[in-house]
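Hello Y.,

Per our agreement to keep a running log of every chain we model this quarter, I'm adding this entry. I've kept the format consistent with earlier entries: sequence first, then predicted structure.
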Amino acid sequence: MKQEIKLPDYQIHEFPNGIRLVHKQVPSTKIAHCGFILDVGSRDELADEQGIAHFWEHMAFKGTEKRKSFHIINRLEILGGEINAYTTKEKIAFHASVLASHFDKAVDLLTDITFFSIFPEKEIEKEKGVILEEMSMYLDTPDDAIQDDFDLLLYPGHSLGNNILGTEESVNSFQRSDFQNFYKRNIGNERLIFSSVGPMDFETVIRKSQPFLEKIPVQASSKTRTPPPSGIPESRIEKRPISQAHLMLGCRAYPLNHERRMGLFLLNNVLGGPALTSRLNFTIREKNGLVYTVESSYSPYMDTGAFSIYLGTESKNLEKAENLVLKEILNLRCKPLSTQQLHNAKEQIKGQLAMAEEGNQMLMLMLGKSILDMGRVESLGEIFSAIDLMSSKELLDIANEVWDHDSWVRLAFVPEKSKK
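Predicted structure for the entry above:
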């Protein structure tokens, strides 16, 4: 008999202002992880706002109605805790990790920086330089820069294709009113979650959070998200002052709530996932020694998705490496996985998913994101059951549906002295 593996129970409480709190108790830890996950990201920026979501993430730490920048960064650090944030194309998160005895202090600080920032003009001007340096550092790393240029080709003329950091022109243009307008347009209490994982019971979490979460004013978002229009597949080669060639191949894929999403995750794991036994890693790196890094990824969004393959190699090996990539894709489109291959693929991804949930901080962020995106959190048992039901025929259909070569985008960065 198979033993069902369940995600430990989580509980949800909604405050009168519409803020939802989700908590999962983990008695074996002394650390509380908590944070706000907001359903807003760089795709929600207007044409003249490129980079403002990420800039806002920075500015949240630069001053609130009752705290200056130093008091924000010092508040939890002196207690041995930490506070952090991130921005993606569809989400912004402000989160903290502290000893459970200081949980209320973390909630207080997170509420303050998320909802009561004042965006001081002097701090905006200083932070412009920091972000421009971040942008320069990012662009000086070809394996990072190629991802942004690839997104532009995959989603031309749409905000999903824009660089999360923005442009030098847009970053330099931002003023206090721009942050206030972006916040007002995009923040709605119904589209954010306060997520918590730690040793506290649910009643304690509610009691300690209530004084801070209930004071958040009732607010509704007026934003709408427009799906990206159809794009024309494009192939581009750019010469750059680099020593190694970099290549990205990819196409659009299933959105977040597509019924075949998990099947594509499984296929991606077989093709170019993190395991050394993935087909791309084994064939191109281990067997032929052509690359140090080769990987594939699948990123689902609410109304579309992106599948991509990245590799870096010497210019003279670029064509051979690319041909090996295409060969492995063709194999998955033409040859169904054998019974043993399918079993191994399922066991591998189940193990990876189970280990990912061992990290309580990542689990806290996942809880909030899942509630926002799907209205619930799937247990590992549910996910494993869905994986167990997948057949080689279904995976073959997915490979042919998504990996149609006529729809692929190709981008290569090659050294300036390269002959090709």
